[in-house]
Amino acid sequence: MWEWFVGLAGFVLICFTIVYLAWLAATAGEQPPDIEFDVVSVEPVMQRYLVLVDVSNRGDQTASALQLESRLVRANEDTLSATSQVDYLAAESTRRVGFYFPANPATGELEFVPLGYQEP
User: What are the TM regions of this chain, as residue ranges (predicted)?
Assistant: First the structure.
């Protein structure tokens, strides 16, 4: 008798899973990747500075081979830049990225720009 109960519970669980996945597919949006940046920390490393940044995708679509650029804009001096790449950034996910700069980022203003991506 308990075998029937376990079988029925498994069947109901599978049905709910199929309905949930179908609902997710039907309500998925078409918004392209929307990239946001959040500075986590700035750490001195040897003669450089490592800027750790959380990169988040708030869009509905996945970004593959996402190219990122960080700029250190300093008054009356050259703008320094660093680039990085995230291989895969799914919708509603976050990855941590590091940018290296030869000068202390506290001497200027950091800017972050998504340069481009590919559809997976």
Answer: 6-26
What is the spatial distance between Cα 85 and Cα 69, in angstroms, rounded to a whole number? 9
Tell me the domain boundaries of the chain. Answer: 1-29, 35-118
Tokens of 11: 């069947």
d(CA 18, CA 32): 26
- Residue 3 pLDDT exceeds 90: no
Distances (CA, A) of 102 to 73, 87, 96: 13, 25, 20
Class (C level, CATH) for 35-118: mainly beta
What is the pTM for the complete model shown? 0.76
Beta-carbon contacts of residue 49 (< 8 Å; ≥ 6 apart): 42, 43, 100, 101, 102, 103, 104, 105
In the chain, what are the helix, strand and coil shares in percent, each to the nearest 5? 25, 50, 25
